[in-house]
Amino acid sequence: MKQSRWQQATYRHPYLFALLLLAVAFTVNALLQPNLLEPTTLNSNMRVFLPLILVAVGQAIVMIGGGIDISVGSIVSVTNAILATQIGLSGDLSTAGVIMGVALLAGMGAGALNGLCVAYLRLQPIITTFATSFIYSGLALFILPNPGGGVPSRLTAFYRETIILWLPLAFYVIALILLIWAAIRRTRYGRYLYAVGGKADAAYETGVPVRAVQFSTYVISGFMAALGGIAMTLLTGSGNAQVGDPLTLSSITAAVIGGTPLSGGAGGVAGPMIGAIILGLIRNIISFANVATWWQTFVNAAIIVLALATPGIINLVRRRNR
Amino acid sequence: MNRRHFALFAIALMTAALIAACGGAPTTTAPTAAPAPQPTTAPAPGGRKFTIGISNPFISSEYRTQMIQSLIEVNKEYMERGITNELVIESADTDVAGQIQQLQNLINKGVDAILVNPSDVSGLNDTLQEAINKGIIVISVDQELNTPGVYNVGIDQKEWAKISARWLAEKLGGQGNIVLIEGFPGHPANVARMEGVEEVLKEYPNIKVLGRETGKWDEATGQQVMSNFLASFPNLDGYWTQDGMAIGAMQAVMAANPSKWPVLVGEGRCQFLQLWDQRLKEDPNFETIAVANPPGVSPTGLRIAVNMLMGKQVDKSKLGGANGLSFVIPIPIIVTKDNFQEVFTTVCKDKPATYLLDGIMTDEEVQQFFVK
Predict the structure, then answer these.
(1) I want to staple A74 with a disulfide (CB 3.0 to 4.6 A). Which of A46, A136, B116, B291 is the partner?
(2) Are B25 and A290 inside 8 Å of each other by CB?
(3) Is the pLDDT of residue A293 over 80?
């Protein structure tokens, strides 16, 4: 009885394991760092995690639709380059708003190119987005050859210091995304998304617009990556055409820890967001546990592998038990 | 059943190992990071011991390894004198956001001073400002930051490049065809160095630069780029390159072995001196230059931080740089044919090939930066 309940539960709520892991990571972190729960500490952590959280949501939606997006990091870099060069350190807020809109459109445009290649030209997602990632990172370098530029400190202060009712800004962003996602899941589009990712042929035969849905996932991913790029720019306050590169692999890791299988058709966005937070908490734990310098990278990677492997090990144990 | 138990056992073991690795460490590394260190039985001159934090976002280079190792060694000296606690080191391959997190964690741990080797010219500014507002002394080592309130400790990268560029130009007698192999374009240190090279070359109008390419501060890439250059320009008279790539570039020349070797520039690493020695056996007239880029600027920065924490006044007239907050460290060793044998047989004698020629200022030497 118990086993099937666990399996059923993880099937219905793919974020369950991630939630469990989050609880463990959070507890360990709070034990090592007692002031973790103070609003300012919580905020300083969450503002660093937010860019990856946003990118991971986009990545998860592509993965649910059966694809993968290797170009998200480069889209973050393009967004960062646009904002840092066009707004400038002394830019005014209305221009900043316009430029952010432009950056979001650019992200969607980049996603649309990915979607066009994958959905309509039927190219392999992993190779296509790997190739386009070089186009985008080249574009970022073209816009911003040398690190520099930036956004006004009023904007970065808003991003870095906003705490409403003891909760950091990032929590409200997360809540908003969860609300939107809950609404989308109920729509026909939401059901199409899972159908396409699960079995595209069967979905096609039942009249699902497979190509349009696949296309849309990349546009959403481009949009989320651009949003992540805005968050990253507000965090650093400066421009660097390579700033997004490391986010690509982290976003996939976060999505997988969050219960989104690479095979598509399952998962959600809550899990990947939790996954992104877990990745950040692991770095904190290593820092506050005073892991010896030369072991930090090893321990970090080992914990991530363990986090990725545990659901598989649990299932293995359950199956043997039956 | 057995397998199931084995799997469970494996999970338990792995978890235990990781917890041991994380939680067990404090007992072995000494109790650092207490937000308010207790006064000890042997009080330091300032009344309490200071804690210094390090933030390093890049570990895949010998430079950084040597930097961390010498930081630990120099800090031991102050620990024995009862002035500092164990260093708090945040060191891992990470991005700008990751380094912001490193810095925030150091601030949270209540360190008194932060030594940061920045991954970005301005992306850390807001976070460093937060540290300064909390009364933490912030020193950027190795790479210069133009951030109000942040001190810099490092060599003058432009002057550093000019030394070998001038040597090359004079060795060529002021004329000839050369190529340049540079580091990461846009990286602050590379920009400063290439400016220096261009300034020198302006004085020698008969030296023609046939090509310029990046070797990404990487030995293998440097070798590949040089091989390509040798193939495209068989009559190359010389080339200029920087640390990290000079070994690869010289290996490319060795492999091609042209009838007339180009005049080449080296780097301050024992492995390069080995190549130099090897070449001398084939051609006793071989000459090159190796200018040290010392990882020791970081431990020198540590000494400066300790002296500042002890309340000594910085003599601002001794500082330079973009915002007048830079401690400019002299270049410790320049190897030419005159001192090659000496350096090679003494300094590199019991060092690994990856060792970078170094120089760490003594506590006495850094006093020159402070008001007497």
Answers:
(1) A136
(2) yes
(3) no
pLDDT at B3: 54
Q: How far is CA B38 from the centre of its chain?
A: 34
Q: How many domains does chain B have?
A: 2
- Give contacts of A 49-108 with B, CB under 8 A: 51-52
Amino acid at site A231 = A
Q: Test A287 with B94 for CB contact under 8 angstroms.
A: no
Between residues A115 and A294, the one the model is more confident about: A115
How many domains in chain A?
1
User: Which residues in chain B have their CB less than 8 angstroms from residue A20's CB?
Assistant: none
- b/e burial code for range A119-146 (CB count within 10 A of at least 16 → b): beeeeebeebbeebbeebbebbbebbeb
The answer to ipTM > 0.90 is no
Tell me the pLDDT of chain A averaged across its residues. Answer: 90
Cross-chain CB nearest to B89 (options A293, A300, A321): A293
* A contact test, residue of B66, B67, B96 with most A CBs within 10 A: B96
**CA B264 from centre of chain:** 23
Residue A286 lies in domain: 40-317
Radius of gyration over every alpha carbon of chain B, rounded to an integer in angstroms: 24
| Spatial separation of the C-alpha atoms in residues B100 and B119, rounded to whole Å | 10
Nearest CB to A313; choose among B11, B26, B125: B11
How far apart CA B348 and CA B351 sit, in angstroms, is 5
Q: Is residue A254 helix, strand or coil? A: helix
pLDDT beyond 50 at B97: yes
* Whether B64 contacts B117, CB under 8 Å: yes
DSSP A88-123: -TT--HHHHHHHHHHHHHHHHHHHHHHHIIIIIS--
More confident of the two residues A320 and B82: B82
pLDDT in tens, B188-247: 788 889 999 999 999 999 999 999 999 988 889 999 999 999 999 988 999 999 988 999
Q: CATH code at B127? A: 3.40.50.2300
Per-residue exposure over A72-100, b if at least 16 CB sit within 10 Å of its own CB, e if not: bbbbbbbbbbbbbbbbbeebeeeebeebb
* Helix (H) / strand (E) containing A210: helix A210-236
Residue B141 and residue B129 in one domain: yes
In a domain, B347, yes or no: no
